[in-house]
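Dear support,

I submitted the protein below through the web form. The confirmation email said the job was done, but the results page showed an empty box. After a refresh the structure appeared. I'm attaching both so you can tell me whether what I see now is the final result or a partial one.
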Amino acid sequence: MKRNIKGRGAGLLCLILCMALSLSLLYGCGKKNEDPVTPQQPDPVTEPPKTDPEPAVEPGPQPEDLIPAFLTEGGSYALRAAVVCYKPKAQPESYTYLTQPTLLGFSTELLDFSKSSDYSKEGFLNAYDLLYLDESLAAPGADTALERVRTYVKEGGYVMVPNGLYDCFEAGFFGGAEFVRFAGSTADLAVEETGADLTELSEVVADYAELYKGYDEYDKLAKKDYGWGVRGGDIVPMLSLNGVSAYAMCRCEKGTVFLTNPLLPNYYM
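What the results page shows now:
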């Protein structure tokens, strides 16, 4: 259920188009039906003797039959995400971004725990493959929402947690990691080797952060508070600053917590 849709979908689509083109060419080479004619006796000198006719070949699959369901209907590759919030002052930007996905079969819903008691029901969040937590969950009254998120993760769910919610959960929620305040600007992020896919993603983020050094007021920007990162515990660090991870995958029982960072201090946000 948790798959890299974009790359696999594009590769399969190219393969399908090639197969469809080949099938159309093969179909064009077939002979048309002809009117029956009276058989003639073969010439014993110039014509070879007739052989038994070849068995009929069953028609192959049609091009439309080769397209997998997830390319047309979502199928088992559909990903359902939810942005979890509590009385946000405005529509969360994360929700706005996630409603414009580039991944096939990806959909997002907004769950404001202050508006419906249904969201607080046990097991309600299990219908989603991924949760993104909004920083409005740090407000008083969001305890039930946070507890439901804890249960969701421990039972095998995936959740993205922004840096600002670091103190809303216990250390075990982040794989037992220790939270450490950053010293320095996130423009100096170091990429950790975590495998081809995650390393490539980390390099994109690091290249983006490097652009901050070109700001006219970078000297002031570098002295601001960049919040907290994680160190130690059962984590997979992706990007680090002086040995403290700004982006990391943290194990929590059966689930996974992805700690993210806005890269900019509150002064600029």
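Response: this is the final, complete result; the empty box was a page-load delay. The radius of gyration is 29 Å.
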